[in-house]
């Protein structure tokens, strides 16, 4: 292998790389592309023109109905018909708009719904800073704590009476974490250490291990106690769950399903691969059973069967039953997505993790699941979008979600028979949301691609 | 040719790092390890060679329990391995492994690949883990690639990351299963150089490899395996230059 293999060194030619040339210019103009793709021969030109013509009439028809001939101000459907018989009657939607969004939630309390959703979004904003300390806890706390805070805002009630002790305490913890998180985010942005870090030097005189965690818990706890005391002083009027509805309720159910789908799905998928027969079969049967029946059946089962299985004195509201049902349904589908992802992970990844000393849970959480989930982002997002749309089925068991509110419009004596416009409205709403989700998933996929 | 052979096993006090005794393994009816008995001394560089399918991978993967074996026993620093937590702990504390296909974690950066074990298992604070990992990456000459993802590196660079990742856990014994077989010829040298450096530090190494040049230069002893059996063991100048068995000669004619 050494150079001595070539004895005659004098005749060696020296290799020199050829200089690089710039790439050929391509004509990228719109007209050029149009001519090349759409008008490149007579047949294609005719086809293009026909499609354009057809599209024009379709769009014109829709515009005529939805905008040009539409009525935006009227008191009743009859008035709409008198003004313009072949246009959309948006006046009905406008007068019912509040109902479509909030259901029958009392108008003067609707700010609580808005506040709840704004906090839900705001909670996640700190995720945007990459180097934030405790960044992992942002999402975890959102999943674990926000539901209590949301529940309190939406339900209302006085701490200690309608608002149970446990729920009240969890709400205080949630609010405290939210505040602390924002404080620490702000301090981090300013280049300072987090609030709880201030106490670390003091604490480290007393304890040696987990000083940071202890300090965080102490500050968080103190804040929560202060907030709990504050909660006892205020009282939000109760709003019964029966009055929740519209897009608000759809978001609650879909949001719950979407958040719980991955944790439940992961548990079911891992359980299905478990070597313990009991766990394996339990998960397998759950997944297969739930996947082979329609969501409506699962919903009906939850509403009618759940109360039978549980002790009689456990009081149930329909929403909780629906949430449980949707959660299991979403989890079972997600489990199959995740299983697909898990199967795509090569055995070498498990072996590498094992030789480094990672046990089962570390391997799963740090190595396998992050890859499996990223690989399945398109499928997961598809499931989320179907979930969002499927939740409109809950109107069948009498929850006043956006679909049932839409049907209510047609039953209103002023707007009797107004079916089309609410459905068009809902379609537009869902399209905007679902399209947004799918675009976000594409973006996420690009950002988190495993094989960069 | 300069030789690195130090015969560490002879020079040092002879501490047995690994003792393999009467190891037998079957895949179904297929007997893939037949009464393998072998001692590996602390600080020794042991090269395992042999034709494809002779059981080399199976043997070293049995040492760190990536494979099960049906008969025989393995002692690591005098302790007999069993299928229990204590043995797993011993394996993790003493052995690292480098694979043919690198098996880096593709969703983590090079640096994160190396710090993952330090932060989650050794519970080191982040900056300390980073410092340790950077030192190791520097040692294998890829500190400047620390923020890249494995998919953005060449094979040789990936294998060097894999070596640093194993070294981060401070193993006493390193197992290499054909670390250069998946590499383009031009990259083989950079990985072998890292291994040679490692050998100089006194690490105990068991390397399955077809790089006979490396074996001759670095190995204290060479093991030749065929059909699940250890055919010969000895210093490279004996096994590779003057083998006793016809099977060894036949093999060497093919690879050299
Ligand atoms: N999972 C398995 N199931 C059944 N037989 C196997 C399995 N893995 C390996 N074998 C068999 O065991 C024998 C030894 O395989 P091993 O991978 O240890 O060989 P090797 O010496 O490492 O070969 P190579 O040089 O090709 O890597 C081979 O005959 C192989 O066919
Ligand atoms: Mg092999």
From TrEMBL, chain A:
Keywords: Amino-acid transport, Cell membrane, Membrane, Transmembrane, Transmembrane helix, Transport. CDD domains: TM_PBP2 (cd06261). It comes from the Bacteria. The keyword Transmembrane helix applies. It is found in: Cell inner membrane; Cell membrane. Pfam families: BPD_transp_1. Residues 247-437 form the ABC transmembrane type-1 domain. Coiled coil: none annotated. The chain crosses the membrane at residues 49-75, 87-105, 137-159, 165-183, 213-232, 244-270, 282-310, 316-335, 356-373, 422-442. It is a multi-pass membrane protein. InterPro entries: AA_ABC_transptr_permease_3TM, ArtM/GltK/GlnP/TcyL/YhdX-like, MetI-like, MetI-like_sf. Belongs to the binding-protein-dependent transport system permease family. HisMQ subfamily. NCBIfam families: HEQRo_perm_3TM. This is Amino acid ABC transporter permease.
From TrEMBL, chain B:
Its main location: membrane. SMART domains: AAA. The keyword Nucleotide-binding applies. The keyword Transport applies. Coiled coil: none annotated. Keywords: ATP-binding, Nucleotide-binding, Transport. Gene3D superfamilies: P-loop containing nucleotide triphosphate hydrolases. Residues 18-252 form the ABC transporter domain. GO terms for molecular function: ATP binding. It comes from the Bacteria. It is found in: Cell inner membrane. It is a peripheral membrane protein. Belongs to the ABC transporter superfamily. This is Amino acid ABC transporter ATP-binding protein. It comes from Marinomonas ostreistagni. The lineage of its organism: Bacteria, Pseudomonadati, Pseudomonadota, Gammaproteobacteria, Oceanospirillales.
